[in-house]
Specification:
This protein is about 75% helix and about 0% strand. By secondary structure, it is mainly alpha-helical. α3 (about 35-45) packs antiparallel against α4, α4 (about 50-60) packs antiparallel against α5 and α5 packs parallel to α7.
Length: about 150
């Protein structure tokens, strides 16, 4: 009986990594999919066209990955293609409504198109998600504050 209990505990401990936080940015896909890895590298290099191409290829193979959709939104936003950016952020949030990075980035995108109320919705969402202080909430709050305090035209 003790051996069976010990085996169950061992199996449970081995299974724990599979229960990783769904908002973690590094996923199994990144370790396996070369296009995903290449897309993230292109983002770091601010090569938006290459990022979009690589991440789009990865998204075709991994249709349920909110991180890929979030990065696509980020790349499109930085390429100035806001319509596509919002589409990918929306997909990311449909796949994972608690995705902190997607809430932060879409909130920033709303500020770029002068939609403060929508940005504030994502601040509120992050407040509900982040039970302890989180960088995404702090960053978006700072951007909203800067937006409010910017000189008006």
């Amino acid at each position: 009986m003790r051996l069976a209990a010990a085996l169950l505990v061992g199996v449970a401990l081995c299974a724990t990594p599979a229960l990783a936080d769904p908002t973690d940015e590094e996923s199994e896909s990144e370790r396996i999919d070369p296009d995903y890895a290449a897309g993230k590298k292109a983002i770091e290099a601010k090569d938006w066209t290459t990022a979009i191409h690589a991440l789009s290829s990865a998204a075709l193979r991994d249709t349920r990955n909110a991180d890929i959709q979030n990065y696509l939104g980020f790349a499109y936003r930085n390429a100035g293609e806001m319509k596509q950016a919002f589409e990918h952020y929306e997909r990311a949030l449909k796949l994972n409504p608690r995705h902190r990075g997607a809430h932060e980035y879409v909130g920033e995108a709303y500020l770029l198109v002068d939609n403060l109320p929508k940005a504030e919705e994502h601040v509120a969402a992050l407040r509900a998600i982040c039970l302890i202080p989180c960088e995404e909430l702090e960053d978006l709050q700072a951007k909203v504050s800067a937006y409010r305090n910017r000189p008006r035209k």
